[in-house]
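Consider this today:
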Amino acid sequence: MKKLEIIIRPERLDDLKSILNTCDAHGLMISNIMGYGIQKGHKQTYNGLDFNGNLLPKVKVETIVTDEQAEPIIDLIIDTINTGTHGDGKIFIYDVADAVRIRTGERGEDAL
């Protein structure tokens, strides 16, 4: 199993949710975060407003998927979310040793 930690622009969240639903990724966690990457310190425009500070609004989406689902999801995200400008985001991929569904005690991929 893989944990995908996907950091994107807030306006791309609906596109990302659509991708995850299409690929049968069950369950996700969404956090509103602030941060910067390679564009740090540069003036950015977000929703028509100019930001002079370093921190820009981002959304972090976390989901756990099977090994087979991970690469197709990553490819779809790159194809769909990419605008070609700084700040499009990043995907971090982690190995997940196990998962347990508390209600039933199911483990591994059955718990997803």
